[in-house]
Write a structure and sequence with these properties.
Helices cover 33% and strands 39% of the residues. The protein is built from four helices and 16 strands. It has helices at residues 2-49, 74-85, 128-139, 203-217; strands at 53-54, 68-69, 90-95, 98-103, 106-110, 115-118, 123-124, 141-149, 152-161, 164-176, 179-186, 194-195, 223-236, 239-250, 254-258, 264-266. A hairpin with a 3-residue loop joins β14 (239-250) and β15 (254-258). α1 runs parallel beside α4 (203-217). The radius of gyration is 26 Å and the shape is extended.
Length: 267
């Protein structure tokens, strides 16, 4: 009987501890939400005082993206080369992280920093729209911009990772009378990528940094129309990383706020 009572007391103590823990977590969450609301109120007040309005699409509480370390994928490079050259290509190493893929239509060079290019190519393309659409679907590019007339001109693309655009990671295809003659661009593979343990700059803080920059640099703008966290490709000593930045769109220009340093620059 005594053992039974002790078991009941132990269970009751555990239930009370779980209840206290739940109450503590609930309090911390409410405190966190209150702090967020206060931050937004302060931000709106500062913007109002500086005659800067925030558009309807601006969400100061949206989350930032984590930094990502990338690993070079030669399999993906070979697939890109096969698409651009029209057939599987022979590969050779040039040293210094440079790989060259060669086929009948020409050759492509890939570098350790993610960039690649090819000139003096000769790949006839009967349907440029279908070719570009297939390339985008296979390798995650989008934002197609075409400056082609009569089969001659450039088509530019931007790479996306998980529906997020990667700045400085685009691609330009040059056509001459329906023949692909040149390619220059960059590619970032997320396969085997690692998220880095970091605490990027919050959206509200990024807006405050931009407000300070606007006031001190004399930037002429009256509205922040949108802000979103995007990636920027960085290559340091052949180490590839995707670094998050806040892309601030105003009624005049676009700006970037670095999630790591808080530095603001005009795009």
């Amino acid at each position: 009987m005594e053992t039974y009572r002790l078991k009941n007391i132990a269970i009751l103590i555990l239930l009370l501890l779980n209840l206290c823990l739940a109450l503590l977590l609930g309090y911390q969450y409410l405190q966190f939400r209150w702090n967020q609301r206060e931050t937004v109120k302060q931000l709106e007040s500062l913007c109002l005082g500086s005659q800067l309005s925030l558009g309807e699409d601006v969400e100061p509480l949206q989350e930032a993206l984590p930094p990502v370390s990338l690993v070079r994928r030669e399999e993906t490079e070979a697939a890109i080369a096969a698409t651009v050259l029209g057939e599987p290509a022979a590969v050779s190493s040039q040293g210094g992280g440079i790989c060259t893929y060669t086929a009948a239509a020409g050759s492509l060079q890939f570098r350790a920093g993610g960039s690649f290019d090819g000139s003096q190519l000769s790949l006839p393309v009967a349907d440029m729209d279908a070719f570009v659409e297939g390339f985008c679907q296979d390798f995650g590019y989008g934002d197609v911009s075409s400056q082609v007339s009569g089969g001659t001109g450039d088509i530019t693309l931007t790479q996306y990772v998980s529906d997020v655009p990667v700045l400085d990671c685009g691609l330009t295809l040059h056509f001459d009378r329906g023949v692909l003659t040149g390619v220059t661009g960059a590619y970032a593979s997320l396969e085997n990528a690692l998220m880095e343990p970091d605490e990027p700059l919050t959206c509200a803080t990024a807006l405050l940094r931009f407000l300070d920059y606007r006031n001190s640099a004399g930037v002429i703008c009256s509205e922040v129309r949108s802000i979103r966290c995007v990636y920027q490709l960085q290559n340091v000593s052949s180490t590839l990383r995707l670094l998050p930045v806040w892309l601030v769109e105003t009624d005049t220009y676009s700006f970037l706020v670095d999630c790591g340093t808080g530095l603001v620059s005009r795009r």
